[in-house]
Amino acid sequence: MKINGPALLTAILAASVLALQAPNAEAQSNCSPGSGSDVKVVNAAAPDIPKADYHANVYATILVTVGPNGRVVNAKVARSSGFAAIDHAAIVAAEGSTYAPATSNCKPVTGQYLFQVRTGP
Q1: Where are the domains of the chain?
Q2: How many other CB atoms are found less than 10 A from the CB of residue 12?
Q3: Residue pair 3/119 in contact by the 8 Å Cβ criterion
Q4: What architecture (CATH level 2) is domain 14-22+34-118?
Q5: Of 38, 86, 87, 105, which sits 20 to 30 A from 80 (CA to CA)?
């Protein structure tokens, strides 16, 4: 049995994504030369952690490289939860999420994002 859907919402304390750099509040439509923005998550996928492999109060951090087209180029464990199944579920969730690419000088560029999964009690 896997924890997913509404049950996952109670099982996961937080599924958050953190930018590697401080977010830039400037909107793409107001872009000016020399400006830029970090990768942003559009829709974060929830991890599907098998019930037998669930461990409370742990987190995994995944380093996600996002290409100029907004697609995931690479995802790897930056900080392990200590449990392979949770790390794997976090990678799958990071890869299944959708992103807006970073920008530099008003053009999309490759960037990185830290995707973090935290389990609840």
Answers
A1: 14-22+34-118
A2: 18
A3: no
A4: 2-Layer Sandwich (3.30)
A5: 38
